[in-house]
TrEMBL record:
InterPro entries listed in its UniProt record: AAA+_ATPase (IPR003593), ABC1_TM_dom (IPR011527), ABC1_TM_sf (IPR036640), ABC_transporter-like_ATP-bd (IPR003439), ABC_transporter-like_CS (IPR017871), P-loop_NTPase (IPR027417), Type_1_exporter (IPR039421)
Protein name in the entry: ABC transporter ATP-binding protein
The keyword Transmembrane is assigned to this record: yes
Localization, UniProt: Cell membrane
Length: 574
């Protein structure tokens, strides 16, 4: 019920539409109820053989039906407007929230699941609202009105009619609970299926290169099969419920027919009233039989709402402090005894890291794979917060800065190059929305990307795929570097940014970047040690600890890890 009210709250901004729809429904219901006395009058008119009365009744019926039609239009349009707007709000809120959530969330949750929640579950809610508001509410109104009228006609008969209601609600309630559970499972399955689709389509290269198509198809079929049975189970609940409800209704009817007939026979009730009473019962029968169906749909949409609120209720692990403010970065970065673990139960990935980068310095991070280099640089833009210790930029703890302010002054080229679908120009401009063509070109020149771009048929307007599919690995990297440079960031983070380049391109990018790095603090991670020789400071990480630091020559003169790594890379193959 709490869930229901929470969902209903989203409708409040559109109260006017909902009220309008409610009025239309009221008119609709009144029109329905007005048919009862009309039918009584019809039978009287026929009994009295009055043509005038007959015409009048028919004319009134046509008028009432016209009004009823107009009301149907009004309620359908108004409620759809309100519910579609509400879904728009909910979907936007979900997307906004997804954008706020931190890195750890996206590592835990599957993309396909999130997509399924933002599309499929939103659709379910929409279905739920249209059936509750468009069907359930007017039906309930008709039901209430008809019951009142029946009581007015004959209270004894009416009481008999109402006796079946507790029985009906018991059944509807029981089936509703079952439906909620099965729906939850079914929606989870839908998420699983979209996760498989998303992962396997995105990773099609791996699937194909391992010739795993058959295996994937088999797995997909298995999941689809489960989904099939869950859907069928939903249907099963519905088709068991509907005839059961109908049977109970018939029992009620039989009792009424018998008792009503008995009263007419004994002269306590006139036949026209009994006919009107039956017409009223017929009016009740339809909404009652729909109650079960509607409840099933409502339960399904509530299960979906649960899945959406589950995400909306998650707090981002990294967010602005209450007193956070904007900062103007000059470029000094300091780590004060920083330790970090990804999760409470996991071991430390960084342990008591102390380091200082002066404004404009180039700091290189080297170390074996898994040493913690990427983790270390990810703490600077606060992709994660340090578990212990603190990071200061220009002596201000980064936790006191607004995230937007902090990140907007950083340029980051991450280990995995991701380009969005769109043109090369758009991809570079992502670094700074609204930048001029000239700025984009300058950034591309600096990243040594300009030359290859103008050789493409459409130049800067070349459309690249979702993951930059039509570009080579090195080309993608250079576009990503241009994108980061365009921001003119105060702090530049390059995580293996030149790893996919050949020696020649790397040298060119290096030269350009040496120029660009001037005046900005740069963190470079590179496995190829040739890239980092000229850094102002080389930091050697091993198992999350800084084991050596200094300039290239200093480190070579010690016989530590750096020397060992260096010798392995430059030793002539034996
Ligand atoms: N999201 C994560 N959750 C849990 N553990 C992680 C996560 N990301 C990385 N790790 C672990 O943290 C350690 C350091 O990883 P990191 O990516 O920082 O290494 P790296 O030095 O950048 O390695 P490489 O040179 O291969 O890129 C590794 O042991 C890794 O398994
Ligand atoms: Mg890394």
């Amino acid at each position: 019920m709490k869930l229901f009210f929470r969902l209903a709250k989203y409708l409040t901004p559109y109260n006017n539409y909902v009220i309008g729809a409610a009025i239309s429904m009221l008119i609709f219901s009144l029109c329905n109820i007005a048919m009862i006395p009309l039918i009584a009058r019809l039978s009287e008119a026929i009994a009295q053989k009055s043509i005038f009365q007959l015409n009048l009744v028919v004319a009134m019926a046509v008028g009432i039906y016209f009004l009823r039609g107009a009301a149907t239009y009004g309620q359908g349009y108004l409620i759809s407007f309100a519910s579609q707007r509400m879904l728009f709000d909910l979907r936007t809120q979900l997307f906004e929230h997804l954008n706020k959530l931190s890195f750890d969330f996206f590592q835990k949750w599957r993309t396909g699941d999130l997509i399924s929640r933002s599309t499929n579950d939103i659709d379910n809610i929409q279905n739920g609202i249209s059936s509750t508001v468009i069907q359930l509410l007017p039906n309930m109104l008709t039901l209430l009105g008809a019951i009142c009228y029946l009581f007015y006609l004959n209270w004894k008969l009416s009481l008999l009619t109402l006796m079946i209601i507790p029985l009906l609600s018991l059944i509807i309630n029981k089936f509703g609970k079952e439906m909620h559970k099965v729906s939850s499972d079914a929606q989870k399955k839908t998420s699983d299926i979209s996760s498989i689709l998303q992962e396997k389509v995105a990773g099609v290269q791996v699937v194909k290169s391992f010739a795993m198509e058959k295996h994937e198809i088999k797995k997909f079929k298995e999941e689809s099969e489960k989904s099939f049975w869950l859907s069928l189970k939903q249907v099963q609940i519905n088709v068991t419920q509907t005839p059961l409800l109908a049977f109970i209704q018939v029992l009620g009817m039989v009792a009424i027919i018998w008792y009503g007939g008995y009263q007419v026979v004994t002269g306590k009730l006139n036949p026209a009233d009994l006919i009107a009473f039956f017409a009223g019962i017929a009016l009740i029968a339809d909404p009652v039989s729909r109650l079960g169906d509607t409840n099933a749909i409502v339960q399904r949409s509530l299960a979906s709402a649960e899945r959406i609120f589950e995400i909306i209720d998650l707090e981002p692990t990294v967010q602005d402090a209450v007193n956070a403010h904007d900062i103007e970065i000059k470029g000094e970065v300091r780590f004060n005894s920083v330790s970090f673990k990804y999760q409470e139960e996991l071991p430390l990935v960084l342990e008591k890291v102390d380091l200082k980068a002066n404004p404009g310095e180039i700091v290189a991070l080297v170390g074996r794979s898994g040493a913690g280099k990427t983790t270390l640089v990810n703490l600077i833009p606060r992709f994660y917060d340090a578990t212990e210790g603190e990071i200061l930029i220009d002596n201000i703890p980064i936790r006191d800065s607004k995230l937007h302010s902090l990140r907007s002054q950083m340029g980051i080229v991450s280990q995995e190059t991701i380009l969005f679908s769109g043109t090369i120009k758009e991809n570079i401009a992502y670094g700074k929305i609204g930048s001029s063509d000239e700025e984009i070109k300058q950034a591309a020149i600096a990243a040594n990307a300009h030359n290859f771009i103008i050789e493409l048929e459409d130049g800067y307007e070349t459309v690249v795929g979702e993951r930059g599919a039509s570009l080579s690995g090195g080309q993608k990297q250079r576009v990503a570097i241009a994108r980061a440079l365009l921001r003119n960031p105060r702090i530049l983070i390059l995580d293996e940014a030149t790893s996919a380049l050949d020696t020649e391109s790397e040298r060119l990018v290096q030269e350009a970047m040496d120029k660009l790095m001037q005046g900005r603090t740069t963190f470079v991670i590179a496995h190829r040690l040739s890239t980092v020789q000229h850094a102002d400071k080389i930091i050697v990480l091993d198992r999350g600890k800084i084991v050596e630091q200094g300039k290239h020559d200093e480190l070579l003169s010690k016989s530590g890890i750096y020397k060992m790594l260096y010798e392995m890379q430059f030793k002539e193959p034996a």
